[in-house]
Amino acid sequence: MLRMFFFVLLVGACLAQQPAAPTALDLVKQGQKLNSEGKQDEALALYRKAMEVSPNLYEAHLESGIALDLKGNYAEAREHLTKAIELAPAAAKTQALRTMAFSYAFEGNASAAAKFEQQVFDARLSAQDFIGAGETANELARIYLESGDTANALKWYQSGFETAKRKPDLSDADKNLWLFRWENAQARIAARHGKAAEAQQHVAAAKAALDKANNPDQSRFFPYLTGYVAFYTGDYKTAIADLQKADQRDPLILALLGQSYEKSGDRSQAMDYYRKVLAINTHNPTNAFARPLAKKKLAG
């Protein structure tokens, strides 16, 4: 009897030492790490296991959509993202809607993306979150711009600027920050139309506003602006010099560098930059335009 008692205690101790099986949410977190490392197939396998355990887990559907977009499986991605929007708790609804907008941006479908960004914009405006609404307007404007729709880009950048100014206690520094963003946008749009002189006027106005804003964190966006303008007005040497001073973790900047080298006749350097783009596994508007471009260039 005593021997049986000790045996039961031993078995219990062994069982207690065994690690608990991962929860569905644990599987999603493991998948997120794999996805960030570029291992989308392995991440998706974990998300599928998570959904076997918990079919209506918001995070599993959201992350599946993200990984599928990075793979280029856009239609399948949006099946999961549609489900994620349905399942999203109130606090995560904005995240789900924006993720769906980015999914359409991966295909350059700005009008479809706008349907989801508009919902976020309206909700933030209704809550009198004028800064958040302004940022949403700018996000949509950028999607329009990189999709080649400069008219709607201008409309939404202006909306972002005017909406942010509605904040009653907006500081002078922040007013200048939003003016910098507005002039920055107009410079890029003018450059897209090949209007070099007009673009440079807006670049000068953007620099003046940035200096008044006295926001060192924002100064890293200035070489991106000058490099962008240089690229779209055909000055590839300046584009390369300026874009190399910009954020090298931004896939769109890397893609612009790749294109600038390609236009300059240096295909080898261009391909190196396109490979750098594909090493980035973020799901945002900049990668939505950089990643498909880099894939196409490397495939060609």
Question: How would you summarize what this structure contains?
Answer:
The chain is an all-alpha fold and 300 residues long. It is built from 16 helices and no strands. Among the domains are: 19-87, Alpha Horseshoe (Serine Threonine Protein Phosphatase 5, Tetratricopeptide repeat); 243-300.
Can you give the helix content as a percent range? over 70%
Task: Give me the secondary-structure category.
Answer: mainly alpha
Low-confidence stretches: 4-16
- Give the C-level CATH assignment of the domain at 19-87: Mainly Alpha
Mean pLDDT: 94
Evaluate the radius of gyration.
24 Å
Biggest beta sheet summary: none
The CATH homologous superfamily of the domain at 19-87 corresponds to Tetratricopeptide repeat domain
The total of beta strands comes to 0
The CATH level-2 architecture of the domain at 19-87 is identified as Alpha Horseshoe
Q: State the shape.
A: globular
Number of helices: 16
CATH topology name of the domain at 19-87, in short, is Serine Threonine Protein Phosphatase 5, Tetratricopeptide repeat
Distance between the termini: 76 Å
Give the amount of beta strand, in percent.
Answer: under 5%
SSE order, one letter for each helix or strand: HHHHHHHHHHHHHHHH
